[in-house]
Amino acid sequence: MGVLGVLVLVLSCQEAAAFLVHVASSCPLAANGSALAFGFTLIFNKNPLCSVPAPAAFLVHVASSCPLAANGSALAFGFTLIFNKNPLVCYNPDARHFIPCDWGLLHGVAGLVATFLNNDTAWVQRAEDRRQACRDLATHFWASTALRRTPPQVRIVPVPLPNTPNAVLLTCHVWGFYPPEVTVLWLHNGDMVATGDTTKLLPNGDWTYQTQVTLMVTAKAGDTFTCFVQHASLDRSLQEDWGPGLSLGLMVKVVMAAVIMTLGLVVFAAGTFIYCRQAPGAFLVHLASSCPLAANGSVLDFDFTLIFNKNPLVCYDPDARHFVPCDWGLLRSCATHLATFLNNGTAWVERAEARRRACHDLAPQFLASTVLRRTPPQARIIPSKTGNARAPVLLTCHVWGFYPPEVTVIWLHNGDIVGPGDHPPISAVPNGDWTYQTQVTLMVAPVAGDTFTCSVQHASLDQPLLEDWGPGLSPGLTLKVAAATMVMALGLGFFIAGVYRYQARPLAPGYTPLPGDNYPAGNSTSSLSPVPCPQGLREKAVVGDIMYPGTSDNAHWACEMPGKSAARCE
Q1: Model confidence pLDDT, tens digit, residues 156-172
Q2: Which of 398, 396, 395, 401 is nearest to 461 (CA)?
Q3: Does residue 448 belong to any structural domain of this protein?
Q4: Structural domain boundaries, residue 441
Q5: How far apart are the C-alpha atoms of 146 and 144, rounded to whole Å?
Q6: In the predicted model, what is the mean pLDDT of residues 125-138?
Q7: Average pLDDT of 407-420?
Q8: In this structure, are 389 and 357 located in the same domain?
Q9: For residue 449, is pLDDT > 60?
Q10: CB of 342 within 8 A of CB of 319?
């Protein structure tokens, strides 16, 4: 019964007719995260009988897919809950449970929704049913698509060639065929001729293909040129003929046929219009449910209504837990009968109570993770030239990615607050991802050393966000900085070269480094006479670390002051 029973009761007041009905449902959300309404639409013969505009721009829907291999077998399976075109919760067919697949701002909400769906076996069973449907229907779908045979259509288009009498370029257009393999030939009075040009196959985007073959001819009266098409979908070849003109008798017949066809179309259009005017009235029955939220996220109320052609017909009383008629016009009796029918079965009452519980369970959590969150802004200053000599620069402070939308943006000049300039700040506009953006402009005449600061104050920031901009160095100061840099670089180069040359210089002849010296490698010994020591010092010969008086081979000469350690005499 269910929706079908509802439809039967409504149809009791209507004229009987053949129809096909199916149901579509949706639940749009408000900007504060509350579930404003629930759309439950009965569609008549594939066409919605009526449309109720959604009160907000948020949409949740389910998408499932099963890609097929070249042999038509199902390779994988996807079952995803999507929020505003972004995947929110995905189904893992191997583990048979839902997992969050949004790692952005809604990751917390995705985790809550995944937990809720995993706790409800109906959703897991729903995903598994679709997975099984993919396996069962993949072969039939493949046979009706990739393995199908669609016959081509043919048309010859003649184009006269300028400056050449009786010369015509014939183009045979072949389209709408599948599979793509096709053979196209030209015949002249039944004999095969060579083609002038053949284009490659092109897809149409609807699983069919098209191609064309051209032929340049000199046509004479009585000639017949035929486009000959062979395709796997055809039991016999398809032919399209073209001649240079029609005879007088055939032309008269064509004109008469055109007049008769025009009259037939007029009569057909008039009959269709009269029939549509006398057709029985269209109707639409759908369900709407809502649970408005308070500022603290608590549920204020719950509404569950069956609506007929935009008019409330039957309403649900959550306190009494039963349906009551809410139409007091011509459909009062229908509303009473329908309410009695819904109250006699527990399915509709349980359905309304389930949606009521869903509002209480999910709405506050969704509100806390969306409306009550804090997202800090980002800021950037972009300068541009204005062409105005008094204020040659226009500074634009772009502030984006913040939530909630309340934000304060001011300009500072060298630390002092300035006005908003010639362009006042615009209000914050949504980005489409639950964040906002705005911008503030300021026309200035900057001088060297000026600093302009964009100060952003937002509820998500502990202290204001500051973004600075300066005009840069003057030409004279830039030249001085460049010259100082070059001089410093040259000085550093000379210093490094001098240190290298000093380290690389050889020892003076006749000297031997003492142990622990840091001179470059190289030793020499000498038995030359010692260098005279200064007055007050005496000469000593040093062999190793021991000092000897007098001279000795392979000795270092040192000078010693009585009572002091020896010092080498260079």
Answers
A1: 999 988 887 778 999 99
A2: 401
A3: yes
A4: 378-469
A5: 7
A6: 87
A7: 85
A8: no
A9: yes
A10: no
